[in-house]
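To the wet lab folks,

You asked to see what we're planning to order before we commit. Fair enough. Below is the target structure as tokens, and below that is the sequence we designed to fit it. If anything looks off to you, flag it before the synthesis order goes out.
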């Protein structure tokens, strides 16, 4: 069976992304990053999602240097998570500097090590908070980087970055997850990381928008 890497945060998008890889019949190797995030609860939820899919090879990497870098509300307690803001085209303070590039770089290294042919990442450029590393231009540029700088492609073993949710709305993502039987009840999206979601941070609002648009009730609890 062909191997793929899934970057699994424990959130809605990455879990639906994992369900896509599962439906396509691959041997899934999930990788989760503990990067000093305020909402560290997502790491525990990622473990539950991996268990749901029977993945005994779930890799959790501690890369808390992001907390030392700071400059993001997700890694610094000195910056408040914005609530009920007008989500325009401005890059919000919850953006973690170049995070997805680091995640993908480590995933590519892992893919080379275990000879995986694809890396799945749940980035989305439709209903999103305005992060520049969630856009199609970023994925295309990083694919070129992999083709040029990784050893596997030079040996005739290409590594493809798959972003199946890139052009979907949040409602379409929710519908796809339900269709694929993804364990949406195990996911967490809240930037504040409480046992109950706050419902007013960007991530919660986008998630709720998705479930409302899909005509479904979100299975997680809100404060």
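Sequence we intend to order:
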């Amino acid at each position: 069976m062909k191997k793929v890497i899934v970057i699994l945060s424990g959130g809605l998008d990455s879990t639906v992304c994992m369900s896509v890889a599962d439906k396509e019949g691959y041997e899934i190797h999930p990788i989760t990053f503990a990067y000093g995030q305020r909402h560290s609860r997502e790491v525990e939820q990622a473990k539950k999602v991996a268990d749901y899919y029977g993945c005994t090879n779930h890799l959790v990497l501690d890369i808390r240097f992001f907390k030392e870098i700071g400059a993001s509300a997700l890694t610094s307690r000195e910056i408040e998570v914005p609530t009920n803001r007008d989500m325009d085209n401005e890059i919000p303070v919850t953006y973690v500097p170049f995070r997805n590039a680091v995640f993908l770089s480590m995933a590519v290294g892992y893919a080379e090590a275990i000879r995986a042919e694809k890396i799945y990442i749940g980035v989305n450029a439709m209903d999103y908070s305005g992060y520049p590393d969630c856009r199609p231009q970023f994925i295309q540029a990083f694919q070129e980087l992999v083709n040029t700088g990784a050893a596997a492609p030079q040996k005739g073993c290409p590594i493809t970055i798959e972003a199946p949710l890139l052009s979907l709305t949040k409602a379409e993502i929710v519908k796809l997850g339900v269709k694929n039987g993804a364990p949406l009840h195990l996911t967490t999206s809240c930037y504040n990381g409480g046992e109950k979601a706050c419902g007013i941070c960007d991530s919660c609002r986008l998630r709720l928008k998705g479930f409302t648009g899909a005509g479904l009730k979100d299975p997680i609890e809100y404060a």
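Structural context that might help your review: The two ends are 43 Å apart (CA to CA). The chain has one domain: 3-213.

Thanks,
Computational group
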